[in-house]
Design goal:
Blueprint: H1 4-17, E1 23-24, E2 27-33, H2 36-42, E3 46-53, H3 58-62, E4 69-73, E5 76-77, H4 81-88, E6 96-103, E7 106-113, E8 115-116
Length: about 120
């Protein structure tokens, strides 16, 4: 059975935009385990290693680089691709979000505006 809130969201998207829109960062990522200092630094045992960044994408504009490890998106831990995709499927297009990431063994954050998936 499909939850009524899901039906309402999907019908609203179709009526407003002619299709169900999904959010987009413009990264390819792979789940990785964090060990030792990186686990303590990030507060999580897993993250998403960035293996590609699409040119002119929201991620590229925010300064996300190959080799960054994304650990949270707007406070939500990113333990697998399902976490990222689930976050992007909830009508957040145009919203600015804070992404925490590990770069060169340092925890940093960037602000990114979620775009529509092409």
């Amino acid at each position: 059975m499909i939850p009524p809130l899901t039906i309402a969201r999907v019908v609203g998207e179709i009526l407003s935009h002619g299709r169900v829109r999904r959010g987009y960062l413009g990264v390819g990522a792979y789940p990785v385990s964090l060990k030792g200092d990186l686990q303590q630094l990030s507060g999580t045992s897993t993250g998403l290693l960035v293996v590609s960044v699409q040119p002119d994408s929201p991620a590229a504009k925010a300064g996300i680089l190959l080799g960054d490890t994304l650990v949270s998106l707007d406070g939500q831990k990113l333990e697998g691709m399902g976490d990222l995709l689930g976050f992007l499927n909830h009508g957040k297009i145009g919203q600015s979000v804070v992404i925490k990431l590990i770069r060169a063994a340092q925890l940093t954050q960037v602000t990114l505006t979620i775009g529509p998936r092409p």
